[in-house]
Amino acid sequence: MKINRKELLSIPNCMGYFRILLIPLFCIIYIRADSIIDYYAAAGIVIISAVTDLLDGKIARKFNMITEFGKVIDPVADKLTHGAIALCLILRYRYMKYLVLVMLLKEAFMVIMGVINLKHGRRLDGAKMYGKVCTTTLFIVLAALVLFPEIPEITANVLIVFEIIMMLVTWALYIPVFHRMKQTWEKPVKEQ
Asked: Which run of H or E residues covers position 100?
């Protein structure tokens, strides 16, 4: 992947960098929070990150600023943001450690399979709809747990278990996708 300065500094990619820079700010505020106002400030950062995530894609498509680098930085910013929020939430919700474990295993699987397929000249053509749904529900669950720090433990646990199930189902749905990709390794890539 050849990257030029214009691509690196495009508005959508800069928005991705901004989202990554918000991560330590969120972590510091959330971990040090000792009042409802502090938790709302942390939730505000999560909301800013989410709005930026929505806007960077819209700007990229509308102004023809979609780049190969942008296709990498956007999901990386998503995964880092979700991972940081989930790790911080482990401090308040004991079931969160199981969600973090499933997130790590699923993402490791996706990365390993992606690298293996790239070595054979294949790659996923963007996220599947169920992957997008899983990412959306993950964000909603994480944001709700940050925004409502006084949520009853049973409600928090139900949300976390729901998201673990969503993630496991999504992971299972990607397995046949990668299997089909493996079956094409011996065939030449079609020219587009």
From this structure: helix 96-119
> Number of helices (H) and strands (E), helices first, in the chain?
7, 0
What sign has the CA pseudo-torsion 117, 122, 127, 128?
Answer: negative
| CB contact at 8 A, 22 and 51 | no
Interatomic CA distance for residues 163 and 82, integer angstroms: 12
Residue 41 near residue 27, CB atoms below 8 Å: no
Question: Per residue in 107-129, pLDDT tens?
Answer: 999 999 989 998 998 888 778 99
Question: The pTM is what?
Answer: 0.89
CA distance 98 to 106: 12
Question: Rounded to an integer, what distance in angstroms lies between the CA atom of residue 46 and that of residue 44?
Answer: 5
How many residues are there in the chain? 192
CB 13 within 8 A of CB 3: no
Q: Is-contact 175 136, C-beta < 8 A? A: no
Helices 129-147 + 68-89 axis angle, to 10: 40
